[in-house]
Amino acid sequence: MTKSALITGITGQDGAYLAKLLLDKGYKVHGLVARRSSDSRWRLREMGVEADIVYLDGDMADACSVQRAVIKSAPDEVYNLAAQSFVAASWDQPVTTGIVDGLGVTHLLEAIRQFSPHTRFYQASTSEMFGLIQAEQQDENTPFYPRSPYGVAKLYGHWITVNYRESFNLHASSGILFNHESPLRGIEFVTRKVTDAAARIKQGKQQELALGNIDAKRDWGFAGDYVEAMWLMLQQDKPDDFVVATGVTTTVREMCRIAFDHVGLNYRDYVKIDPAFFRPAEVEVLLGNPAKAQRVLGWKPKTDLDTLIRMMMDADMKRVAKE
């Protein structure tokens, strides 16, 4: 029998990769999409799956539309990827971030509890919940200390998922994903900001790149690898929480070097430090320990940072050349 899946946030980076993965596995895929005047489906077109998805109008801030989406899709699996996911914007929009990234999770869990309790649920948690790190390498037992409205809102979403799992025996799992990137990443995120700028500078369309704390360290992986971990979580007999990461941390500075080297440039000649891009509360280091995901799910990342950045550079060079 064909499985049915509902993906919130399907028009985002992770949503597009996950939709392709599930369609390739024979799922019927539904996507919850908030009505927008701008084109929000370009990533799905890039993945060649736009026409294969059943779209349902809805908004995570509106409990009734979330309930309707659950009832209409009759999902075997729900993947909650919807979020205001840009950390910097969460200081400018703390209430919106709290509603979408926190309360919206409750709307979805409550809809599942009431109308589809057999459904397996995935919550997209984040390494930003660790914030001011309490251990050199963070795993599922590391205490949380979020340092942004985004991290705080996501922590609510994480704990309400645990609460519904324990209170109502739902098959509800959270993936605590560390930074994961791809050519589909939004231009506002630092990896795409760097690769886009390197491509533009190489082609004479930009002069320099302004960044904040380039000595911040992150654990970067490939979004296409990470959606496989999401799917694997919902195939387990027992729901649980899993850190998904590479186990390698790299500075933004080193990431810049890789990107600019790929087009024969020295990043030092073009990257400028702008204090305006520093966070109100900095997160200096994030480094995940994916041992549990490797042991229980049999998951390992396939793509290293050099390969990932070169993949993104190639895509941005082609895109910028066409502009």
From TrEMBL:
InterPro entries: GDP_Man_deHydtase, NAD(P)-bd_dom, NAD(P)-bd_dom_sf. This is GDP-mannose 4,6-dehydratase. It catalyses: GDP-alpha-D-mannose = GDP-4-dehydro-alpha-D-rhamnose + H2O. GO terms for molecular function: GDP-mannose 4,6-dehydratase activity; NADP+ binding. Its cofactor is NADP(+). Residues 6-312 form the NAD(P)-binding domain. SUPFAM superfamilies: NAD(P)-binding Rossmann-fold domains (SSF51735). CDD domains: GDP_MD_SDR_e.
